[in-house]
Amino acid sequence: MSVIDRINTLQGKFTSKEKKINKFIMANIDRIMYMNTYEIAEQCETSQASVVRFAKKLGYSGFPELKVDFGKEIGRREAKEKISFTYEDMSENGEIFENIKNVVKINTRIIEDTYSSVDVKVIEKTVKAIKKARKIVIVGAGYSGIIARDLEYKLLELGINVIFQNDFHTLLTIIPTLTEEDILFVISQSGRTSDIYYLVEESKKRNIKIIAITQTSNNPIKELADIQITTVVEKNNFRSTSLYSRISQLTIIDIIYVSLISSDKKLAEKYIGDAIEIASKFKL
Asked: Which residues contact 210 (CB under 8 A, 6 or more apart)?
């Protein structure tokens, strides 16, 4: 997970001193590499110990390690500036070739951003939980529902007891049948869809394990999840297809799917091989 993603994740948990340090650092990213804890503490009117605690809260051993990650962040930003574009760059004159190039570039950048934010330990926990679960119920609304259906198909292919349901009233009847051995797998980019939040809340009361894929910043659904998987944040105002969140979510789902296959190749090959053999009979 990049330093920016770490900061976004903990944004709502900073103390007043940490907020001052964070505000200064985010406004002076290019300078941080050349500053020490004394200089930052002086600028923020706080102590060196507070600056060190801020770094440790982000998961670093100390301030020097935090600076190394900021160096990497600057490198990533410089690389992105070379291919900087937004949806506003899309051709208004129907120039298909330019649109093709831009979409490919955007998708590539989304995947790279997702890669930089993925937490390996969280993916490992997710894979272990899925393999151990008695039953998995997947929920997702709107475009997240399309991703949820894709996850259902992939898990079914691996012989996992899973169901995707997007009808709220049907889900109200399913939740009471789940136990502590089951999983509610939630996909919600905003993490603020009221119907889904209610389902998560009810599941939490029943000690059902909750896995959630949401955006990095704090949100109600993410706060209740036992396993929190974060995706990159929407970076534009182009909303007709929510391209950024969709590609990021699909990338996460593929990572989980491949990780499950890698954890038990023989069983995966058997299920997938049998499915291919059965489906082949219906090919013309």
From this structure: 183, 184, 185, 186, 200, 203, 204, 224, 225, 226, 227
- The dihedral sign for the CA sequence 180, 185, 191, 197: negative
Q: How far is CA 41 from CA 7, 25, 36, 50, 52, in A?
A: 18, 11, 9, 8, 10
Which one, of 171, 170, 164, lies nearest residue 203 by Cα?
171
H or E element, residue 160: none
Strand partners, 212: 186, 228
Q: Residue 271 phi/psi, 5° resolution?
A: -60, -50
Tens of pLDDT along the chain (284 residues) come to 677 778 877 777 889 999 999 899 888 877 887 888 989 999 999 999 999 999 898 888 888 888 888 777 766 655 554 444 455 555 555 577 777 887 888 888 888 888 877 889 999 999 999 999 999 999 998 889 999 999 999 999 999 999 999 899 999 999 999 999 999 999 998 888 899 999 999 999 999 999 999 987 778 999 999 999 988 765 544 443 466 788 899 999 999 999 999 998 887 777 887 877 887 888 77
Handedness of CA 274, 275, 281, 284 (dihedral sign): negative
CA gap 263, 245 in Å, rounded: 27
Looking at the DSSP bridge assignments, the partners of residue 276 are none
Cα-Cα-Cα-Cα torsion 257, 260, 262, 268, nearest 10 degrees, comes to -90
Amino acid identity, position 94: G
